[in-house]
Write a sequence for this structure.
C-alpha cells in the first residue's frame, strides 16, 4: 500500500501518532469487512437497500402505511422516509455495537505495546462513517432525481455527526463494560432492538399524535436522542424544512455531552484494560 | 530530562488477584453480598532507578521478581500504582513473543501498524521495509498473516522491527533466546551497533554470562525490590550468592 498522506508538520507528535493509528484501524476495519468477498463494497449498498425494499413492502404495501405528507417536498414515498431514518439509525447502532468488538480486537495487542486505545474505536467509527457517507450519497442522488432537494440538506451532516458522537460516547462506555463482562454485548444488542421501536423509523410521527398514545410515550419517543437525530435528518432531506431550533439544541447537547462523558470515562479506564487477565 | 533517559521514582505496582472472578453479569449478580475474594499482590515496591542516556542496562532476578513488570511500566503498557516513570525519546519495546503483532494481519501490515504505534509515517516504514525483511530473514512470508508464523519467525520479525525504527530507547525482554544461534548473534551485534549510535538499551535476561558481556550496569530484583544496582560483576556476584543461599524461591507472595 503505497498510499501516503502527509500531515501538517505543526501537529504535535502524539496527535500525529493518533491520527495515523486511527487511519490504520479504519483501513483495517473496512478491508476486513468484505475480505474474501467477490463483490466487496457492493454488499454495503445491498444491506440498507434490501432493508428498505422489505420494509417498504411490509409497511407501505401490506399495512398500507401512508408516507407522511410534506409541505415543501415532493417525494412522498414510504421507502424514502424509511431510508432516511435508517441511515442515521444504522450509523448509531453500528458504532455502539462495533465499539465492543473493536476494543476486544486490540486488547491483546494493548497488553504488549502501548498505544492510545481510543484510536481503535475512533478508527472503527471512521470506517462506519465512510459506509454512512455512501448511503447518504445514494439518498441524495435519489432525491436529486426526484427534484426533492433544497439547502436544508446541510442539516443532514449535522444529524449524522451528532448521531456519531452520541454513538461513540455510548460505545466508549459499553466497550469498557464488555471488556470485563462479555455478556454486555448481548445485552446491548437486545436493548438496541428495543430502542429501534422508540424511534420513528418504521412509523410516522403523525401516528404518535393520535389520542390513544399515552403522553409519556409520545414525549419519550419525540425527545430521545436517536429520534432527534432521525427527525433532523428527515427535515433536511425529506420534508425540506429547517429543523426546530429546540430539537437542534437538544440533539447537539445529547451528542456532545454523551461523547465527552464517554471519552473521559474511557481515557480513565483504558489503562486498566491492559491488566485484564 | 535528556533524550534516552529513564527515570523511575518511588514506583510500586499492585496487581489485583481475584479468585473466582465473575466473568459474566449473571455470576456477578449471584455473588452480590458475598465477600469477594480479592488479594492485592505487590509486584514491585519502591523502585528508584535512573538509566542514563546511551547506557546498556540489564535487569536480573528470579522468575516472578518483577523484571518484566518493570519493563512494561517503562514501556507505558501498565500504569504504576504509586510513583512515576518518565522516559524521554522514541521508545521501542520487544516484550514477548510477537510483541505488538496482530495475528490476522500479514507481516508487512504489522510492520506498518508497529510503525504507526511508534509515531512513524508509512513512508518512513516503507523505506525501512527491505531492511526489516532482510534482517528478519523471513522472506516471502512477510505477506502471510503472522498467525501462521513459527515462534522463531515471530521473534525475528519482532526484533527486526524493534531495532529498525531508530529507537532512542530499546526495551528487550528475554525473547531473543527463542531465535537460533545465528540470529541471536546478529541480535547482539545489532544491539551493540545501536548502543554505539547512542540508543539506551534495557535488557532482561537470566543469562548472567550474557549480561556481564553486554551491560554497563545491572539491577537485581528480588520479590519486587531492587536489591542492588551497579557494576555487572558485583551485582552478579551478590545475586549468585543469594541464589546459593537458597534465597531464590519461586513463591512470590509474601
Amino acid at each position: 500500500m503505497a498510499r501516503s498522506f502527509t500531515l501538517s508538520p505543526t501537529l504535535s507528535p502524539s496527535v500525529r501518532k493518533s491520527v495515523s493509528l486511527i487511519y490504520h484501524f479504519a483501513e483495517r476495519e473496512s478491508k476486513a469487512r468484505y475480505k474474501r468477498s467477490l463483490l466487496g463494497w457492493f454488499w454495503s449498498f445491498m444491506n440498507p437497500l434490501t432493508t428498505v425494499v422489505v420494509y417498504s413492502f411490509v409497511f407501505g404495501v401490506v399495512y398500507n402505511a401512508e408516507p407522511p405528507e410534506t409541505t415543501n417536498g415532493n417525494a412522498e414515498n414510504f421507502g424514502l422516509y424509511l431510508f432516511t431514518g435508517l441511515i442515521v439509525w444504522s450509523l448509531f447502532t453500528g458504532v455502539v455495537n462495533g465499539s465492543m468488538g473493536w476494543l476486544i480486537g486490540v486488547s491483546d495487542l494493548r497488553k504488549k505495546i502501548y498505544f492510545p486505545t481510543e484510536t481503535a474505536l475512533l478508527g472503527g467509527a471512521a470506517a462506519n462513517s465512510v459506509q454512512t457517507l455512501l448511503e447518504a450519497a445514494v439518498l441524495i442522488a435519489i432525491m436529486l432525481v426526484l427534484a426533492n432537494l433544497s439547502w436544508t440538506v446541510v442539516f443532514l451532516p449535522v444529524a449524522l455527526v451528532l448521531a456519531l458522537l452520541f454513538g461513540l460516547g455510548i460505545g466508549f462506555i459499553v466497550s469498557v463494560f464488555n471488556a470485563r463482562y462479555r455478556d454486555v454485548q448481548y445485552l446491548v444488542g437486545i436493548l438496541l432492538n428495543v430502542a429501534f421501536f422508540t424511534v420513528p423509523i418504521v412509523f410516522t410521527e403523525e401516528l404518535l399524535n393520535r389520542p390513544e398514545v399515552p403522553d409519556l410515550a409520545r414525549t419519550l419517543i419525540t425527545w430521545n436522542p436517536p429520534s432527534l437525530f432521525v427527525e433532523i435528518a428527515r427535515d433536511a432531506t425529506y420534508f425540506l424544512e429547517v429543523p426546530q431550533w429546540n430539537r437542534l439544541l437538544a440533539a447537539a447537547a445529547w451528542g456532545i455531552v454523551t461523547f465527552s462523558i464517554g471519552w473521559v470515562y474511557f481515557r480513565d479506564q483504558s489503562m486498566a484494560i491492559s491488566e485484564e487477565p | 530530562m535528556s533524550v534516552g533517559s529513564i527515570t523511575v521514582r518511588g514506583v510500586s505496582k499492585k496487581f489485583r488477584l481475584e479468585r473466582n472472578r465473575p466473568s459474566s453479569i449473571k455470576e456477578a449478580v449471584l455473588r452480590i453480598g458475598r465477600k469477594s475474594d480479592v488479594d492485592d499482590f505487590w509486584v514491585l515496591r519502591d523502585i528508584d532507578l535512573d538509566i542514563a542516556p546511551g547506557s546498556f542496562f540489564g535487569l536480573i532476578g528470579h522468575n516472578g521478581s518483577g523484571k518484566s513488570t518493570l519493563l512494561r511500566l517503562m514501556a507505558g503498557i501498565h500504569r504504576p500504582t504509586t510513583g512515576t516513570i518518565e522516559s524521554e525519546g522514541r521508545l521501542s519495546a520487544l516484550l514477548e513473543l510477537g510483541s505488538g503483532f496482530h495475528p490476522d494481519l500479514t507481516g508487512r501490515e504489522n510492520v506498518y501498524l508497529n510503525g504507526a504505534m511508534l509515531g512513524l509515517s508509512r513512508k518512513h516504514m516503507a523505506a525501512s521495509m527491505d531492511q526489516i525483511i532482510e534482517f528478519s530473514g523471513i522472506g516471502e512470508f512477510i505477506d502471510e498473516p503472522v498467525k501462521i508464523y513459527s515462534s522463531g519467525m515471530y521473534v525475528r520479525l519482532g526484533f527486526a522491527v524493534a531495532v529498525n525504527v531508530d529507537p532512542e530507547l530499546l526495551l528487550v525482554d528475554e525473547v531473543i533466546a527463542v531465535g537460533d544461534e545465528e540470529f541471536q548473534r546478529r541480535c547482539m551485534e545489532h544491539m551493540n551497533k545501536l548502543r554505539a549510535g547512542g540508543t539506551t538499551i534495557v535488557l532482561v535476561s537470566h543469562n548472567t554470562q550474557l549480561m556481564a558481556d553486554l551491560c554497563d550496569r545491572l539491577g537485581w530484583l528480588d520479590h519486587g525490590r531492587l536489591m542492588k544496582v551497579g557494576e555487572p560483576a558485583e551485582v552478579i556476584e551478590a545475586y549468585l550468592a543469594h541464589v546459593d543461599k537458597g534465597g531464590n524461591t519461586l513463591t512470590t507472595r509474601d
